[in-house]
Amino acid sequence: MADSENRIDSGISRRRLLGTAGATGLALGAVGGAAGYATASSNSPDAAASLTSLGADRVMFHGKHQPGITSPMQSRGHLIAFDLAPGAGRKEAAALMRRWSATARRLMAGETLGDSDTDVARDAGPSSLTLTFGFGHSFFSRTGLEKQRPTALDPLPDFFSDHLDKARSNGDLWVQIGANDALVAFHALRAVQRDAGEAARVRWQMNGFNRSPGATSHPMTARNLMGQIDGTNNPKPADADFDKRIFVPASGAPAWMADGSYAVVRRIRMLLDDWDKLSGKAQDDVIGRKKSDGAPLTGGAETTEPDLEKTGADGKLVIPINAHARITRPDQNGGAAMVRRPFSYHDGIGHDGVPDAGLLFICWQADPLRGFVPVQRKLDRGDALSDFIRHESSGLFAVPGGAGEGEYVGQALLEAY
Amino acid sequence: MADSENRIDSGISRRRLLGTAGATGLALGAVGGAAGYATASSNSPDAAASLTSLGADRVMFHGKHQPGITSPMQSRGHLIAFDLAPGAGRKEAAALMRRWSATARRLMAGETLGDSDTDVARDAGPSSLTLTFGFGHSFFSRTGLEKQRPTALDPLPDFFSDHLDKARSNGDLWVQIGANDALVAFHALRAVQRDAGEAARVRWQMNGFNRSPGATSHPMTARNLMGQIDGTNNPKPADADFDKRIFVPASGAPAWMADGSYAVVRRIRMLLDDWDKLSGKAQDDVIGRKKSDGAPLTGGAETTEPDLEKTGADGKLVIPINAHARITRPDQNGGAAMVRRPFSYHDGIGHDGVPDAGLLFICWQADPLRGFVPVQRKLDRGDALSDFIRHESSGLFAVPGGAGEGEYVGQALLEAY
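^ Those are the sequences you sent over. The predicted structure of the assembly is below.
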């Protein structure tokens, strides 16, 4: 996943970071502790360690797009959905989005929240924290904004293989949190929950993770809990049509979604005990790629184009007709494209020995009907992988464009109509 | 937490690490992917990133003590307890400990498990992975080794404030897994579960986390989910009596526990909504230390000795009589000492908005009756913190000394009697 324009590169020096914080009026006392990433008090014997780029890296809150879409994947993530409380409407929603935006801006800059801060992230740098906000289908009727509801938010079709828990699906409001430190992420999650106050109630919440930066020499495409390389065919920001496929154009409709994107969120449980029983060859056939290095079964390396027509000595297709990688190829789906930016999840192993683990699949596209939906329709009918996964919850959210200085996310929707 | 003798410092070069792997007979093919931390195939455009010390750092499996006791805390942890399966006894237990030790040695060195490997950690370095193995009270009757059961494993006393879930407490066998990468940790967890095979069944399993290395300039004492600095008063390996307090002496009893330690494991739920409602001053009074920098309320810095007798202008003790830090002071507990090496946990926020979060408290001592028990007895009677926490599960495990080359953990118990 390449840099987004929001991102400050890892080359940022700690001095510069502190300078930025100082410029925003943050007190950096000699005693330490006033800032989120302040140094330990100097007479502590443990004060020698320094903040690495992992801690110092930050992503900008303000920008054309919201952060957390093209930002590099972080090692820890939280998803949380809220429903507006009974009696809360457009006014309360606008106030909440204003609070959330202010919190996101401050935390992503490594600032504290002052007296209301729980101190869980104290001493830590922003650690590439991102907060991303979206609106679900039900948000618009709750706020009297039905006329502004994009048709792209029409409910996803039912898929044959779905086993959806409605209580863990959708929601009026959705927040995605990611950071390279678990306490920084948890701190942000609790701040988001506190900001909700009386205006909104938690509908569902999920935790996820990815590789830690530096743990692998191959970080750009991650492995999932099946051991597969995931994300090889993601559109790249350098692609000519990347913006068109992922973001609603500035002139798009509805106008308040300019530079926004649509997120499809699926909690996909992996039936790991069944999967792990397959031979390596059988696993490769399910995917159509070699698990070892992600190369197509027709040869080459991870980034080599698969030869979908190639047959073996036995006359059979080398990449089986129901291989996952064949079915998800954009050229097999009318050019459908989305950026997949998932987290793995693992909610423990039960007394029965079965892990509750899999993928918090999150994909981003300018139009779900040209991204997730056609691909999932094909997977639903004939994906060899479907025997080993189960879609357990689903969400679809309109994620507005980024907030400019002094603005809050969703302001164009909540104040313009 | 200082280095253990098992630890290879972060200065280890990647070349040296690869060299070590090569020496153990691991194939490092030009195509990449054969080793757990092999480079990506060279024609991948994503291959540029290099393994940092986070990924390359490793802890030695073989040593005087098992790893994971004095090793630096890792950012991700799993605890898993097993009961021996019906019909499984000493022989099956010995074979299982042999399998687990072999797996731990290989994974901690960054090797793969060959054809049975799930590939989840593929491309990643060992990332400071540790696996630590212990035996619970019930293990000894199941294996006909009652006479070798240490009195130190006698069940912990009931505490007034306990709310223990027996199904998530104790167990015949216990494994602690830690790593600085979540997929490396998950990979090891699944390998441990696979090794259990027909010999043992999962009793309970929990996930935890700590700060990521580099996320903070103050890593030696961690913050917990209450925002408190935790671990300030931990015994340090440089202390003259450290070994005596934490490890069973080489001449200790029973002989098979030479250089071993006892782990007390408590899942301590934090009532964060109640806690977060307190003012900063009220929180400081509960703990007896300033949340900001961990300094005692009587002044100084985190490492300053608290003045337990000091009174304020109002004649009251500055550090309240029921302050957590007062009650847990070793000099208030007959010198009781233990090394606390916990993980935080967060198993999600429920529909009621309440987080299931807190501390996987793990402490290490040569004798629980001179470590955890006297301290918890005092906390049980008068700790101001007890209104904000709830002990939900409990375990006590005998953790044998480290395995030498060619040995497995627990061999002295399982083969000598």
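The first strand of chain A starts at residue 76 and ends at 84. The longest helix of chain A spans residues 90-108.

Shout if you want it in another format.
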